[in-house]
Amino acid sequence: MAYDADVIVIGAGLAGLAATAELVDAGRKVILLDQEPEQSIGGQAHWSFGGLFLVDSPEQRRLRIKDSHALALQDWMGTAGFDRAEDHWARRWAEAYVDFAAGEKRAWLRGQGVRFFPVVGWAERGGYGADGHGNSVPRFHITWGTGPGLVAPFERRVREGVARGLVELRFRHRVTGLGRSAGSVDTVTGEVLEPSPADRGRASGREVAGVFELRAQAVVVTSGGIGGNHDLVRRNWPKRLGTPPKKLLSGVPAHVDGLMLDVAAAAGGHLVNGDRMWHYTEGIENWNPLWARHGIRILPGPSSIWLDATGNRLPVPLFPGFDTLGTLEHIMRTGYEHTWFVLNQRIIGKEFTLSGSEQNPDLTGRSVRGVLQRARADVPAPVKAFMDQGVDFVVERELPALVRGMNALTDEPLIDEAALHRTLTARDREITNPFSKDSQVTAIRGARAYLGDRLIRAAAPHAVLDPAAGPLIAVRLNILTRKSLGGLQTDLSSRVLTEAGAPLPGVYAAGEAAGFGGGGVHGYRSLEGTFLGGCLFSGRTAGRAAARATA
């Protein structure tokens, strides 16, 4: 029986594009399958902020950030907390990825035209000991052009492969089975879905128009994770994080359904670390949604007062931007699923960035003028739109009205005005004291010691209740699904492994479907900026390995 291609790649997101581009460079014939329409090429990466984890970069050095391979690896391992037998390959992938981030990653991307915003962000700051969770230094490099700017060179390389007759793009092809005809997995079967004019991100329909069967020497699975499938998220929800939330916002479109993972497992692939996942606690409902339950994550600076549902400040070091999953674990122990940021207009104007390419038209459009206008605005336009139209925002001049608005957004009135006034007044007394005992105030001052934060991310210390800094703002925060940290276990050549630890013949995996490498390169937690980079690194590895195997 003849082969239809040398390699079949399943999934046209960033990992799939990276794998296909490498196969094209090696002269291999590829069929690239995706269940979505062609207008959704690039997958989740298109919607991303474009953040990439780099180590000891020129951008860091220009900002006097002293980083090193040793420090980055220390941060990664302290954050990951690898503690399972199945973490063997994940640990090796982590070491390889830090090597990549401290080595050729930046030059490789620049060689394809990728450029970076000059200010490096400081995500996941941790706040624990030196060998615990968090980035010791800023490492979050924003792609100039955000997610679309990062997808573009890989899409270009794939379309050049189409022009050369090396790549067939087959959209609306949903894979339902992997089979063997001669020892190796070489057969891909599935359903052809009805054509769809749905815009990128919107539901595209699942009406079946036919079936297909294709054969190739190798198969690369790059189908993504489970974040758009709330049933799977709840089924895999870790016990350490308590009962799954009743209300979840979606940070990814519905087609991120995780169904291909079970198909690969049925063919013999070993799924590991399904209970490791990365969800955000600063989710707000999109006032202009693209998909069902569409949520946007706030990327906060350090100054907002973070309160639980009953008005108590979150414990140290659960400050904005410090420990995502530590905060999630704490929230799920409170008996409530929402929290609050309380701040004022001066803080929101300086410190709120909204995640997503569409929420950052200046960076996405590569507009220097737009970036300068954002820096000069009292409140950036995308943030102002949420203040005016977002259902999670309360904006008032006086604290009593703010509290009434907060209580109107919940099933029962949980916020006590007098108690909140005491909390804010106590914090405001500390902000004028250079010898403050308030750890968050110390963190704000520490942030402003970094030039990048002082320029665009951390407001000058001031009293929240200062009328001149008003109006007051309260933001109800929801839990927002995003990434799977587990997936198909792979070796350092991206070969999918069986439960016995042997390679599953003919099958490779990359991106979120492989836990970004090894079945969970992040362990329990991420340092941020590592998801897109994980797709690129594992996709590149899978493409090169599949090319070697089909020579």
Summarize the structure in words:
By secondary structure, the protein is of the alpha+beta class. The protein has helices at residues 14-25, 58-62, 69-80, 88-102, 105-110, 146-163, 230-236, 259-266, 324-333, 345-351, 361-364, 368-376, 381-389, 399-408, 417-431, 439-448, 451-456, 531-549, and strands at 5-10, 30-34, 51-53, 140-142, 167-171, 173-182, 184-193, 208-221, 249-250, 271-272, 277-285, 295-299, 305-307, 339-344, 353-354, 393-396, 472-484, 487-488, 495-497, 503-509. The strands form four sheets. Strands 1, 2, 5, 6, 7, 8, 19 and 20 form an eight-stranded mixed β-sheet that branches. Strands 9, 11, 12, 13, 14, 15, 16 and 17 form an eight-stranded mixed β-sheet that branches. Helix 1 (14-25) links the parallel strand 1 and strand 2 (30-34).
Give the topology:
Blueprint: E1 5-10, H1 14-25, E2 30-34, E3 51-53, H2 58-62, H3 69-80, H4 88-102, H5 105-110, E4 140-142, H6 146-163, E5 167-171, E6 173-182, E7 184-193, E8 208-221, H7 230-236, E9 249-250, H8 259-266, E10 271-272, E11 277-285, E12 295-299, E13 305-307, H9 324-333, E14 339-344, H10 345-351, E15 353-354, H11 361-364, H12 368-376, H13 381-389, E16 393-396, H14 399-408, H15 417-431, H16 439-448, H17 451-456, E17 472-484, E18 487-488, E19 495-497, E20 503-509, H18 531-549
Parallel strand pairs: 1-2, 1-8, 2-5, 8-20, 9-17
Antiparallel strand pairs: 3-4, 6-7, 7-8, 10-18, 11-12, 11-17, 12-15, 13-14, 14-17, 16-17, 19-20
